[in-house]
Amino acid sequence: ILFLAYLVKRKGLSFLLDAMPRVWDVVPQARLTVVGDGPDAALLRAQAAALPHAGRIVFAGAAAHGDTADCFRRAALYVLPSLGEPFGLSVLEAMSTGLPVAGFATGSLPELVAEDNRPLLAAPRDGVSLASSLIHLLQDAPLRQRLGAANRQRVLAEFTWGRVAAQVAACYAEV
Question: What is the pTM of this model?
Answer without folding.
Answer: 0.94
